[in-house]
Amino acid sequence: MTTRLFVALLIFAVGLPVAASDAYFVRFSAIGGPGSSVLWADDVLFYNANSLPVSVHFRGVSNGAAHANTADLVLASRQTTSLRANNEVTEAWAPNPDTVPLWILHLDIPTGVIVESRDEFYFTFPLPGQMSVTQARGKVSMPVFRELVPANEPQVQLGTDLSGTESRINVGVYNAGGMPANATIQVRRACDDSVVATRMIVVPTNTVVQSVGVALVANSACSGTAAAPWTYTVTTTVDQPSLTFVSNLNDNIRQPANEAGILPIVGLAVTKNERF
Question: Between the CA of residue 181 and those of 65, 172, 176, what are the distances in Å?
Fold first, then answer.
């Protein structure tokens, strides 16, 4: 093969488009509540397993308009890239104005790229005469959505609990439709399929909202034997194309003295079900 032909083939190969797939990410940055010292913030990690660099392309954002200039995020070959570490891209891929605490990011992910969506939480505290200090305290992995769910198709989330520990259920609903969406949320105890809570909410178009405290769930007496008595399921039905996600939170867990240093304190869970 001549040198000229080799160079031409190389240029042609680099110029070939890489197949890409839709992906939706839940993004957020918010303080835990009035007087809280907890900061909740997300990140997205990308690993490019391809032998050449590839680009992640911005498709859209909820809870506001897209910025005018949204450059691609270039991923180096066989390296990990953090979205949060790329400040210019992160800001361009946020809603405009970027004052909302929760939104959905829609991207094109090239074939051969591995992603993790992360829910990270931090403890913030002031120092005398200085700015507040923020320290990382933990994280859970968030779901990555590959497609929207058609209107009126029930979205079932299994394992919406913290096992035997009491927790409150929060349900996020993203309306991707062109009209306001009516969403019905139902919480069932898995052991006997009994309904323990129902809530109906309205979600504006191209908006994600989180319905907080849909139910307070815990280990309870149950005559059914279909599942453990602390297991719960959430079903959300939305009359527009949508996405839903569920988190369980207990931010007041106190470890018994006889368990100190033995069992970890787990006060947060996010469902990540796989559909077959």
Answer: 19, 13, 9
